[in-house]
Amino acid sequence: MMDEKIYDYIVVGGGIVGASTALSLITKHPKKQVLLVEKEKSFASHQTGHNSGVIHAGVYYEPGSLKAEFCREGLKETIKFCSLHQIPFHQCGKLLVATNDVELKRMDELYERYLFLIHI
């Protein structure tokens, strides 16, 4: 007979979402048992391991929208996590260039959003 283990939470998927969910559960419920399962041989084998490595700040989203808030909060928490665990990161910024009048209007709107974000 196999020894059965009982888990309070089982998180399926070892990418950034699964790993951060498991970490959050462990942090918030340290006495609970958490199991993180991944079908691949290593973690972050799919989208997480193939992304650009950019932490999005939400500049393209409507100020105050849920997406913009998630990006801002995610940026802040990711930097805090990396700093705490001595994981190197680089904030290099982003260069936006307009090539026509329509894009220039959009960039003006982005600039207004930027001004809104830095004053929050």
Summarize the structure.
The protein is 45% helix and 7% strand.
Describe the model:
The protein has a two-stranded parallel sheet with strand order 1-2. The chain is built from 4 helices and 2 strands, in the order βαβααα. It has 2 domains: 51 residues, no CATH class; 68 residues, no CATH class. The protein is elongated and about 70 Å long. The mean pLDDT is 86. It is mostly helical and 120 residues long. 45% of the residues lie in helices and 7% in strands. The protein starts with 8 loop residues before the first strand and ends with a helix.
Summarize the topology.
Blueprint: E1 9-12, H1 16-28, E2 34-37, H2 47-50, H3 66-84, H4 101-118
Parallel strand pairs: 1-2
The global form is elongated
Number of beta strands: 2
| String of helices and strands | EHEHHH
* Number of structurally distinct domains: 2
- Rg is 19 Å
Strand order of the largest sheet: 1-2
Keywords:
single chain, 120 residues, 2 domains, 4 helices, elongated
